[in-house]
Design brief:
The chain has about 325 residues and is α/β, with parallel strands linked by helices. The chain contains 12 helices and 11 strands.
Length: about 325
């Protein structure tokens, strides 16, 4: 066979072989399912109507339209959101997500026996969606108008100033204890069974102060029933422009936002995470979503990927150390 014909024949065989390989690979590629291939379940560890649920439903509406499949909110309240987190950590269907809140990073600090997941390692953080800053509010009986006056009064007589929280181990409890360390003061904790009775007694003068989320006390500040001394935001809030930040008022480094964010099981493929991140950013950027959040004392806060993961790890370590210092366990 002449050399030129031999080369041509070899090339033809090679081309035929490549075509056969491509043909054989085509079914495998075609079988790779697009995500989502069915409705997505978004688990919430609180009852319907609360801030976490509201954020979840706003995101679900956005993501359902963007992904082309319904995103169904599944409320699983109980055990300080442990039930919901366990359901997502153990999910293997590829279509189950968690709308978590700040207390997710407090679970390792409070529980050691009954938790069947790792708050950091069992999840892949997608995006923080919204945040509600902590604000220090005082009732009429304390007689202080500035954070400096508050710190001075607490320093003059340690443990004489009381603060209310929705309960031992709550996010407000941890936020308050963080403040005492940074401000070098000692306060007396008065735990309640929920935020409503705590705020009621604060207004009645039964307790002196509370480190509350802005949304829970904003109407009371606006009407003058409570006085806001400082807010834990990098800059002043547009909703309370007259209230200084903790930095401005002299307590440096205090950050205790209540955040709401999307977590996926740890094994979730990166391509799926990127799709979810796209929808999270679209929700945070939408005017309707932002307006709804601000009406509840929250702000859009699209912090995604590694920065969000780093915050979760950092907060988990901080709260665990505080719980250890207080010998605080709920098991």
């Amino acid at each position: 066979m002449p050399r030129t014909i031999e080369i041509a024949h070899a090339r033809a065989l090679a081309a035929t072989g490549l075509a056969a390989l491509a043909f054989a690979a085509a079914p495998a590629l075609a079988q790779a399912p697009a995500w989502p291939g069915k409705p997505v379940r978004l688990v919430v560890g609180f009852a319907a109507g609360g801030p976490t649920d509201i954020v979840a439903r706003g995101f679900a509406d956005q993501a359902g339209r963007g992904l082309g499949q319904p995103v169904i909110v599944d409320n699983k309240p109980g055990a300080n959101t442990i039930i919901a987190a366990e359901a997502v950590a153990s999910a293997t269907d590829g279509h189950t997500l968690l709308m978590a809140a700040t207390n997710h990073t407090m679970i390792p600090a409070l529980y050691s026996v009954r938790v069947k997941f790792d708050a950091v390692k069992s999840f892949k953080p997608v995006c923080m969606l919204a945040a509600a800053p902590t604000v220090l509010v005082v009732g009429p009986s304390l007689g202080v108008r500035t954070l400096g006056d508050f710190v001075q009064k607490a320093s003059a007589k340690p443990l004489s100033v009381t603060y209310a929280s929705p309960g031992v181990g709550s996010s407000v409890h941890f936020a308050s204890e963080l403040f005492t360390r940074l401000a070098a003061v000692k306060l007396t904790h008065v735990p309640y069974k929920g935020a409503a009775p705590a705020v009621a007694d604060l207004m009645a003068g039964q307790v002196d102060a509370s480190f509350a989320t802005l949304g829970s006390v904003l109407p009371l500040i606006k009407t003058g029933k409570l006085t806001a001394l400082a807010i834990a935001t990098p800059k002043r809030s547009a909703q309370l422009p007259e209230v200084p930040t903790f930095e401005e008022a002299g307590v440096k480094g205090y950050a205790a936002d209540a955040w709401y964010g999307l977590l996926a099981p740890a094994a979730t493929p990166e391509a799926v995470v990127k799709l979810l991140e796209r929808e999270a950013r679209a929700y945070a950027a939408s005017s309707a979503g932002a307006e709804k959040l601000r009406s509840l004392g929250m702000e859009p806060a699209p912090l995604c990927g590694e920065p969000f993961a780093a915050q979760i790890a950092r907060e988990t370590a901080t709260w665990t150390q505080i719980a250890k210092d207080l010998n605080l366990k709920v098991d």
